[in-house]
């Protein structure tokens, strides 16, 4: 659940929510159905989303070892799952914590940044063909944040 909603509920334990607080909660609830639809679509179409990405990566890096390509694709499958969960909960901090825990270190340790960046680009393009114009703005900020967290030094 979005941290602001959790905070509102905690603050209102011994009182009713104020009108402005109810409005925040209503906006959150209204967007939850849209976020659930996106989450379910990603879950159902994961293979259809990633197969063209995998094919394009294999074509772009024909001399790369298959296990290296496979490992990088698995990273991005997990990253997209984390993005989907963060989007569902509307919680960017969830994504940040998950990615900083392991993904950033893995990408750096395996020195496949060129492949990983290409997968990101292809995945973003592929998502645009599977999600509607109304759905994309709910997910793409999380995907962009994942790129920022993984490929920038902090």
From TrEMBL:
This is Phycobilisome protein. GO terms for biological process: photosynthesis. Keywords: Bile pigment, Chromophore. InterPro entries: Globin-like_sf, Phycobilisome_asu/bsu, Phycobilisome_asu/bsu_sf. The keyword Cell cycle does not apply. Belongs to the phycobiliprotein family. It comes from the Bacteria. The keyword Lipid biosynthesis does not apply. GO terms for cellular component: phycobilisome.
